[in-house]
Amino acid sequence: MSLLSIFDVSGSAMSAETVRLNTTASNLANAQSVTSNFADTYRARHPVFATQAVPGADASDADSDDGAMGRGVKVLGIVESNAPLTMRYEPEHPLANEDGYVAYPNVNVVQEMADMISATRSFQMNVEVLNSARTLAERVLTLGQ
Amino acid sequence: MTINFSNALGLAPQALELLGQRTSVLANNIANADTPNYKARELPFQAMLKDAINGAVDPAEPMAITNAHHIDATPADSIDGDLQYRVPLLPAIDGNTVDIHVEQAAFAENTLQFQASLRFLDNRFKGLISAIRGE
Prior knowledge:
The complex is a heterodimer. Chain A is α+β, with helices and mostly antiparallel strands. Helix content of chain A is 46%, strand content 19%.
């Protein structure tokens, strides 16, 4: 039944948005994690979303790529940003290299904040959809009473 | 005179089924609002309801298959064939065509239509019940 597949669809979207919020939290928390070694410096992480078929959807849709019923979102993976690290000249820093530079992560705090707002709004939207679907399903159950 | 359920219930059951499917399609669009390259989908509700009323292909009299090369023309239960793509107002740079406000408005409208159809169906059932009771 199509109304019940909405729970899977919105649920998968909520979990994907949670992953996005998680990476944002990690990026913001590590925005100042410095190292003297470039290879070990924290790099901003972002999830990659893709459409997926949700288990429990119609069997006919599972085979076809084009099936629209019972689809959701999945996180394909989390990629590290390859933007250049921020080098700062801080010779008095205990982790500074022999030239006096410290490597700061390539986290763009403004971009992360915008991303956080977007993820929060998307999450809220999916909660609304879930609530509507639940209300509709409850109304159907009380039909004829 | 016997009570014919399909006559007594009118359009509401078909409308409810289609609206339920449309709810799912719109929920999908909202869920994939941040997915790169996702294209927003939409069901042509009125055309599909018209088909459902007229019976696009009469299931009682399907096309005859008299040769192995004939293609089975029985319509599938799936709605995939009817699904269309939304014309994007402002496609995003990542290839996503979901306009969240359009989807939200469509979802709200769809919920209202669903509840209206449900109310109609409910009233038909109540009418039948009072006819049966004869009160």
